[in-house]
Task: structure prediction
Amino acid sequence: MFESLKKKFGGAVKEVQGEEIRKSDIEDNIRNILLESDVSFDTAERIIGDMTDFISRVKKRITRTEVSEALKSSLTNILTENSTDFDILNPGKKPFVILFLGINGTGKTTTVAKMANYLKKNNRRVVIAASDTFRAGAIEQLSILSERIGVNLIKHESGSDPASVAFDAIEHANARNLDYVLIDSAGRMQTNKNLIEEMKKMKRVAKPDMTILVLDAMIGQDAVHQAETFLKETPFDAVILTKLDTDARGGAILTISDQLQKPILFIGIGQEMDDLQSFDPEWYLERILPD
Ligand code: GDP
Result:
């Protein structure tokens, strides 16, 4: 994952080694790499600004190591400024209700199942609410996945009221003293008036303790626009970024961190149930920064 970004950063840093660094060197070398790697213009400018500030503080002539340090320091700030100390495994309320939002195809339904699997492997007791009653196949998909991972699923007929499915799942969790209720939801565009009303009803009925927006890393900067559209009508607390294993350019994480100002809680790195991991900025930086 992210080999191409690492190679590009490595090349850029190597080129400037031992030379007298001017602002324009950084701008030329690093900005292009960032923009090619799906980092937005604003985020790229922020990184360039951080690096040139850092370098002008150090000295005129600068080593390769110092260029790497400047880059690492800027990226670390971007990735950690919204990180949260919230511990998903010990949320302090039972059941802890999590609502998942996302556009169709982002990987929302798969992510709900992956999250249930993650919690179960950590000895937490979970029920899933199949509240995407709109997309043909979503209930069936969750039935197969929940059976595979051994987690209870509450489902109604296709087309039924999503809030009522969530309500039943919460009752189920209360009766059995379960730890989590994970609610899938319909993933049509957020500009759809009916969906907005449906989501508001869901929030009233299920009163989620946390709302997570699922975003597809492959769509890069568009993920930020998608998230901003959601924020207007159905606010969310955190993000899960899917399909990083297929994100050839690798920079979407930086743009999303910088521009959304929401924590990235987990990342999806494949289609299997175990392919979800909590997002660790160090893990990402190790993969993209030159050795
Ligand atoms: P939904 O419409 O948002 O509920 O999307 P689905 O959960 O049905 O996922 C759409 C496709 O994305 C499926 O083929 C999933 O297997 C795939 N998918 C989900 N997450 C990941 C991921 O992290 N990596 C990869 N490669 N594929 C994923």
